[in-house]
Amino acid sequence: MHSDIFPSTPPAAAATAEKHEEEEEEGRGTWKHAAFHVATTIATPAAYAPLPFALASLGWPLGVTSLVSGTLATWYSSLLIASLWKWNGKKHITYRELAGSIFGFWGYWSVALFQQVASLGNNIAIQIAAGSSLKAVYKYFREGGSLSLQHFIMFFGAFELVLSQLPNIHSLRWVNALCTFSTIGFAATTIGVTIYDGKKTDRNSISYSLQGSSSRKTFRAFNALGIIAFSFGDAMLPEIQNTMREPARKNMYKGVSAAYGVIILSYWQLASCGYWAFGSEVQPYILSSLSVPEWTIVMANLFAVIQISGCYQIYCRPTYAYFEENMLSSKATGRFPLRKYLVRLIFTSIYMALITLIAAAMPFFGDFVSICGAIGFTPLDFVFPSVAYLKAGRMPKDAKCRLSMQLLNFAIATWFSVVAVLGCIGAVKFIIEDIRTYKFFHDIRGICLTSTKYK
């Protein structure tokens, strides 16, 4: 039921939405394209490479439970969002417009805020990961090379600026197909090397006990919950569904389920193998813990960079769309055809410069992952879908099914709201410690993305 006080979307947004519907061509993507997009946005090396560390921070029982419940909850939540496609007879082409149609003014702007936090935080984290992977490859071929982490972060930013000139998500479909295969390649390579290194290690020297004082164990556990929330982050489902051909809802169901098949095969195996191999000493980025054979680690890093490049692009799109909506008009682009491309180049350059500067200045990968998961992804991927489905009144007619679904949605929204708060507390504490320990534009010697608090 819509609010009479607040419009479903702000007036300016409604006008831009109307303009988008006039200009946007009908979706042409298949369920396979949806699977590529969803797998690219979720299953990035930056997302699941920290999972062994998250398990080490929680221990086997709580760690495995959190990972499995996070997988099932986000799979379910993604299907809920897909089911709300045209829920009131109108096509909602962005997450914020869907929120506005259900919750009104505050829903629109809350989701817009969370989506920006998720997008910016995600891209800062994965740009750090990409730069570090590139440096690891460079060090393998030129051990005494003088280029720093910051150089590779800038190289990656320049490459992303070029990709940013592609017009929309659908234009990235072949990039994301390559990224999905790189996800599988990264997972297979990393899992294989992890098992190899684990077997070469003296198993009696591996400890699985939680490290540090009681307070440190608690904060690390909070931080780990944020990392797990980040690992399932996908704040772009309506935008992806907008690229689907009809029946869009059915294609999205199939695409999401196929993507989660990839996620389960990669996430669960890498998390458990990484924790088994290195125990409590596993690093926040699993490649930091690997040692031999070196050429396979280089290959894993190359897979990581390829995959990350597509994920980065999808998360740029809400920010680009917001600025383009407010800077472009049909009349202006009609009189000056090149204006659209010039505006895109200017704003993508500003965006890329900002993200690159932050990533280069504060390369604290694990902490950005956690705070991004807590503040950005948890509300969008766990809380909002459950609450929005209840608000939209899409419950089953059968009384028992309706009650069960209501209780499940309420439980997911409540628990993961708590997770968001706890994850934020843990991440903020460790970011403060990092800033006290390191200078800005801190370099790394190899692939290590950690700080001394993890060692």
UniProtKB/TrEMBL annotation:
- Any GO MF annotation of the entry: symporter activity
- Superkingdom: Eukaryota
- All copies of the Amino acid transporter transmembrane domain together span 28-426
One Pfam family from the record: Aa_trans
User: Which parts of this chain are annotated as the region Disordered?
Assistant: 1-28
Q: Where in the cell is the protein located?
A: Endomembrane system
The regions listed as transmembrane in this protein's record are 60-85, 106-126, 146-163, 175-198, 218-237, 258-278, 298-320, 341-362, 368-390, 410-432
A GO CC annotation given for this chain:
endomembrane system
Tell me the InterPro entries matching this sequence: AA_transpt_TM
User: Coiled coil where?
Assistant: none
Q: Which UniProt keywords apply?
A: Amino-acid transport, Auxin signaling pathway, Membrane, Symport, Transmembrane, Transmembrane helix, Transport
Q: Which GO terms describe its biological process?
A: amino acid transport; auxin-activated signaling pathway
- Membrane topology for this entry? Multi-pass membrane protein
Belongs to which family? Belongs to the amino acid/polyamine transporter 2 family. Amino acid/auxin permease (AAAP) (TC 2.A.18.1) subfamily.
Q: What does this protein do?
A: Carrier protein involved in proton-driven auxin influx. Mediates the formation of auxin gradient from developing leaves (site of auxin biosynthesis) to tips by contributing to the loading of auxin in vascular tissues and facilitating acropetal (base to tip) auxin transport within inner tissues of the root apex, and basipetal (tip to base) auxin transport within outer tissues of the root apex. May be involved in lateral roots and nodules formation.
Identify this protein by name.
Answer: Amino acid transporter transmembrane domain-containing protein
Question: Source species, please?
Answer: Quercus rubra
